[in-house]
Automatic annotation (TrEMBL):
Name the record gives this protein: ABC transporter ATP-binding protein
Pfam short name (any one): DrrA1-3_C
Keyword ATP-binding belongs to the record: yes
InterPro entries hit by this protein: AAA+_ATPase, ABC_transporter-like_ATP-bd, ABC_transporter-like_CS, DrrA1/2-like_C, P-loop_NTPase
ABC transporter domain ranges (all copies): 4-234
Species of the source: Paenibacillus rhizovicinus
Highest taxon listed in the record's lineage: Bacteria
GO molecular function: ATP binding; ATP hydrolysis activity
Keyword field: ATP-binding, Nucleotide-binding, Transport
Annotated signal peptide: none
């Protein structure tokens, strides 16, 4: 079954097209990644799925129900972890979760039980009475998740849930996503962190300028990139501007440098590497290592758009 089906979804703000005719199916049991740079249109799409924004055009179906016609069903099937924290600082952690679960229709003993379960799930079981104003960024993010899951939705949408938190909380959140998925939830996970999407998502859509420019498993997406390759060269004692001499070289598409390490995105033909090395050696630079990297999602994005995800 498709837990989510989107057809021809479009959102215009005045003349600006933020989401441009997106169609998409997310099947039950998937962790579906929505990967795109800042401003690509991820949040606008999510806000339409959650009925927070009216589409300019297109249809959205959740569990085969049109969200316009069966809005109550859609609301109860959906859990939303918004990008901007949606928690009340002057309510306790327990009261926050209980408030949101109540909005989704839970009452009485079940409301109490699910509130406590959700807090325990995110590792805040012993913080039920504490106030989020005293929480770290990572704890607030986890509370935000608890608020979205207490009513046990079939589909959970997480909009960049790991922005601005420490690595430990990030790992905690990623393993919670997996656990929720194993317990039967379908998950849509948006991020501009390629590594996270690669790590947890079973299928990925890459969004750019409001359009889906590629979709598939990580393996399908990387296999589709056969005409480019990534080369990483480590120099000895670089001053930091050595990459300039490679920009514009035939076959070289993009170059970046961090201290001694130069990353080159180039056409796949073999002579490129020779040309690059000749250029560096002609400048009497000492080369420590040369490595050809397997394509990853960043390569896919770079090949399709000519930009890095975080340019
Ligand atoms: N209410 C609005 N009015 C006008 N433009 C908007 C509005 N909301 C979003 N936009 C524009 O639509 C585009 C897509 O924004 P959106 O927030 O969906 O991107 P995103 O992929 O979620 O990026 P981010 O990772 O920064 O959240 C951006 O150019 C943004 O400036």
């Amino acid at each position: 079954m498709n837990v989510l089906e989107i057809r021809g979804l479009t959102k215009k703000f005045g003349d600006f097209v933020a989401v441009d005719n997106i169609s998409l199916k997310v099947r039950e049991g998937e962790i579906f990644g929505f990967l795109g740079a800042n401003g690509a249109g991820k949040s606008t799409t999510i806000n339409m799925i959650c009925s927070l924004l009216q589409p300019t055009d297109g249809d959205i179906r959740i569990m085969e129900h049109d969200i316009k016609l069966q809005s109550r069903f859609a609301k109860q099937s959906l859990g939303i972890v918004p990008q901007d924290l949606a928690i009340y600082e002057d309510l306790s952690a327990y009261e926050n979760v209980s408030f949101f679960a109540g909005l989704y229709g839970l009452r009485g003993a079940l409301l109490k039980q699910r509130t406590q379960e959700a807090l325990e799930f995110v590792g805040l079981g012993d913080k039920a009475k504490s106030f989020p104003k005293n929480f770290s960024g990572g704890m607030k993010r986890r509370l935000n998740i608890a608020c979205a899951i207490a009513h046990k939705p079939k589909l959970i949408i997480m909009d960049e849930p790991t922005v601005g938190i420490d690595p430990q909380s990030r790992n905690y959140i990623l393993s919670s996503v997996r656990e929720l998925n194993e317990s039967g939830c379908t998950i849509i996970y948006t991020s501009h962190y390629m590594e996270e999407v690669e790590e947890i998502c079973s299928r990925i859509a890459i969004v750019d300028h409001g359009k889906i420019i590629a979709e598939g498993t990580k393996e399908q997406l990387t296999a589709s990139i056969t005409d480019t390759k990534d080369i990483v060269i480590e120099l000895k004692n670089a001053v930091g501007s050595e990459s300039d001499m490679l920009t514009g070289l035939a076959g070289v598409r993009k170059v970046s440098q961090e201290e001694n390490v130069i990353r080159i995105h180039s056409d796949a033909s073999v002579d490129n590497l020779n040309r690059i090395l000749k250029q560096l050696m002609a400048a009497e630079l000492e080369i420590r290592t040369v490595e050809e990297r397997e394509p990853n999602l960043e390569t896919v994005f770079l090949t399709l758009t000519g930009r890095n995800l975080r340019d």
